Each structure stands twice: as structure tokens, then as C-alpha cells.
Amino acid sequence: MNKTFLKIGHRVRKYFRNKIDSARFNNPQVSIITNHCMGGIICHDLGIKFNSPTVNLKILPSDFIKFAENLEEYIGKDIVEVEDKSVSYPVGMLGDVKLWFVHYKTFEQAVNAWNRRKERINWENIRVMLTVREECSDEILARFEKLPYKKVAFANEEHPSFPSVIFANKNGKQLSGYISDIVNVFGKHGYQCGGFDYIKFLNK
Q: Is the model more confident about 185 or about 70?
């Protein structure tokens, strides 16, 4: 999408689509557990609190599946800072799960935000959303299918063996960029493509 269409898409999202989506949304206490920035963007769009610590960070699928399978156990652990010279943002270990705090300037800032938001988790109202990237194997997707939560995963190809995995595409073609990007002039994010209704998924 060229820059002009991109600007239009962002304005439509900001001034129109957010209002339309918010009018349909009825579950502001939902906790969105995700491995990318998608959860934070959804909360921003709908004007709700971050009821989950997995905001503004990245978790690789191989670590995220461990985290989601044993959510309460990992939430109870402390985060330890680790040095990673390959990135310019802080990185931490939650047990054996690596947290990439992409949108934070300092480790202290990231941990404070994590600890504050983990207290808001609504354990009876969880949605799990996975972006299938960074070597996400079929074995991981099979484990994802067994999670005891309402869930959805977004992939750049079809996975008919896994009912919870959606082929996020634009007119039948793979999306470029990130799943949370605005991808058309109607203000839709990548995760809304392929026919996925994220409001219906989040609602009670």
C-alpha cells in the first residue's frame, strides 16, 4: 500500500473504525495474552486497560507456547535481566522464557510495567493470540491447539490441520510486514484479514 493509501487507512482507523469496533465490543475486562505487539494495539484501538503483561514486547513461539501452557506458573516468576548486544532494547528471562522488551528504554521500566499489568489478569476471561513467525513448527501449533483458552493464531500460509490457525491474507496473498499493520484504506489491521472478526473473538 502506498503512502497516500496508508495515511487514509490510518485516519479511517482512528476516526471511524475504532468507533465502529468499540460499539460492538462488550468485554473490557478481557486479558489478551499474545507474543507480539498485537494485544497492545487492540487495547489502544478499543480504549481499554492493558489487562495483561504481554504488551509492547516479543516472545518467540517456542518460548510462548511454554509460557501459555503454564501461564500461572510463569506469571509467578521474577524477571532477570540478560545482556543481548544484538538489540538496542532491554531483554529479560522469565525462568526459561526470553522476553524481548521491544518498546521499552530501560529494563526497570519494562519490569515495572510487567508487574503492574500481571496483577490485572482476569483468569476467567483470557484470550490467547499467536503470530506464527520465527520458526513456529507444526509441533508448536499442535500444542497451541490444546491450550485451555479461547485462542487464535495468524499465519502467512494455510494450516488446515490446525483449526485455530488462520491464514491472514490480503486478497488471497501473503501479507507483508507485521500482522498488526494497517493494510488497506478501510483501516483494517492485518489480523482482520482473511475474514477474522477480532471483536467477536474478544467478546463475551
A: 70
58 phi/psi in degrees, rounded to 5: -130, 140
Q: pTM for this one?
A: 0.92
Q: Which grid coordinates are listed for 188?
A: 483494517
Q: Which residues in the chain belong to E strands, given as ranges?
A: 31-34, 79-82, 91-94, 97-100, 126-131, 150-155, 165-167, 169-170, 173-174
CA atoms of 91 and 183, how far apart (whole Å): 30
Q: CB of 54 within 8 A of CB of 34?
A: yes
- DSSP secondary structure code for residue 16 in this structure: I
Q: Are strands 126-131 and 97-100 parallel, antiparallel or unpaired?
A: unpaired
The residue among 157, 71, 158, 86 whose CA lies nearest residue 122 is: 71
Q: What is d(CA 91, CA 137) in angstroms, rounded to the nearest whole number?
A: 24
Predicted confidence band of residue 95 (pLDDT cuts 50, 70, 90): very high
pLDDT classification of 1: cutoffs 50, 70, 90: low
Distances (CA, A) of 101 to 53, 68, 95: 11, 18, 16
In the numeric block, which cell numbers belong to residue 101?
A: 522488551
Give the range among 67-76, 79-88, 103-112, 169-178 with minimum mean pLDDT.
169-178
